[in-house]
Design brief:
- The longest helix is centred in the last third of the chain and has 34 residues.
- A hairpin with a 2-residue loop joins strand 1 and strand 2.
- The protein has one domain: Up-down Bundle (de novo design (two linked rop proteins)).
- The C terminus is likely disordered.
- Helix 2 packs antiparallel against helix 4, helix 2 packs antiparallel against helix 6 and helix 5 packs across helix 6.
- The protein has a two-stranded antiparallel ribbon with strand order 1-2.
- The chain is 77% helix and 2% strand.
Amino acid sequence: MNRLKQLLTRPLRPVHSSVIIFALVIALCGFADATYLTIEHYQGRIPPCSLTGGCEVVLTSQYSTIFGVPTSLLGIVYYVIILAGLFGYLESRNTRLLKWTLFFTTLGFGMSLWFVYLQVFILHSFCVYCLGSATTSTILFVTAMGVFSHQELTKNSVNHNE
């Protein structure tokens, strides 16, 4: 818990634009995937699922909505928050905004772990679109952890050189 508090209270150094652009592209892919699934949900259609063959089982299961809201719509909200934070950082170079945006990827990663768990152990079916979203959330999380660990490495190398 102290490490988390330390991470959130310590200033973040500026991050290279290429890392942010990479994360933007990944978040846009996740947003497109979640948007497609949401549109299909509200049109009452199950997207074609030839690779895994389990989309219908997953997308019509009791786990596909939370309080009547499709989980894909929650995914859209998640990706919009990530995109807004990343675009905001590129525009303002506000490292506090970036830090919270990157920290928020932990939520997406945690939810992805839960949904993959459901597919593997409860539903015994796989939705390629859901797995795609889990992949994009995981890549965003790993990118965020890479930024944070690079900050740690940079801090440690500066401390060792003093």
